[in-house]
């Protein structure tokens, strides 16, 4: 089956072909089945930038008219991560691909098969389902490994070594992810007060007052902040970095 053929059921329609024993799928119809689309002026377009972002480590950029093999289809379906994507994978793995490999075309109705062929068909379907389950499991394991590496990066923040820059970067990431730009630092400082048994705002006022008494200009004294208070106390640095790490892990931020 070298000619491009259309396979469809009540929910999906995809184009595919068989070349040298390899099943290839039309990238555009796969993207549409998985929901990688957007509407502009009542016209539905494929979001090729998003599709290619999911395939960047395994393929060159694809676009309209390109064909992709089974593993790339499953990778896109895993990234889509929704009920429709799972149904699409099941349809391909259980019905379409076995029939393409066996007959060179898609035959959704197996009722006319002999008992022996029905048994063979059931075995092939189960083999494909098992393969699909393995692919999903491998994908989940890769995602989990990536999350562990991200958490490790957070945990490896070391107090006293560029702690200001490191914690600021993570706090900014937390703010971007949660959209909570005003209260994130406030919550961290409140947690610092509770855990250290101190009042950092009061200590900041005292620091500014001492600076003015020592001859520092008002503007320079006012530029002092809570991080300057924390920097004076090694115990506060340790507690502060620990709180930032905990919040980052809780929010799923690396």
From TrEMBL:
Residues 1-104 form the Bro-N domain. It comes from the Bacteria. Pfam families: Bro-N (PF02498). InterPro entries: BRO_N_domain. This is Bro-N domain-containing protein.
């Amino acid at each position: 089956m070298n000619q491009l053929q259309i396979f469809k059921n009540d929910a999906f329609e995809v184009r595919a072909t068989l070349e040298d024993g390899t099943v290839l799928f039309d990238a555009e119809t796969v993207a549409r089945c998985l929901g990688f689309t957007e509407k502009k002026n009542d016209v539905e377009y494929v979001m090729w930038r998003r599709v290619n972002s999911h395939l960047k480590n395994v393929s060159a950029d694809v676009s309209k008219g390109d064909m992709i093999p089974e593993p790339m289809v499953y990778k896109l379906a895993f990234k889509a991560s929704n009920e429709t994507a799972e149904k699409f994978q099941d349809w391909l793995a259980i019905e379409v691909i076995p029939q393409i490999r066996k007959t060179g075309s898609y035959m959704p109705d197996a009722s006319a098969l002999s008992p022996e062929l029905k048994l063979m068909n059931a075995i092939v379907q189960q083999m494909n389902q098992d393969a699909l389950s393995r692919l999903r499991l491998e994908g989940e394991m890769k995602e989990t490994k990536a999350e562990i590496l991200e958490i490790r990066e957070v945990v490896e923040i070391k107090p006293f070594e560029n702690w200001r820059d490191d914690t600021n970067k993570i706090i900014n990431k937390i703010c971007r992810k949660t959209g909570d730009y005003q209260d994130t630092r406030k919550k961290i400082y409140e947690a610092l007060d509770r855990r250290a048994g101190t009042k950092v705002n009061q200590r900041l006022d005292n620091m500014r007052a001492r600076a003015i008494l020592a001859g520092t200009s008002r503007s320079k004294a006012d530029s002092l902040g809570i991080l300057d208070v924390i920097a004076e106390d090694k115990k506060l640095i340790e507690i502060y970095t620990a709180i930032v790490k905990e919040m980052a892990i809780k929010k799923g931020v690396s």
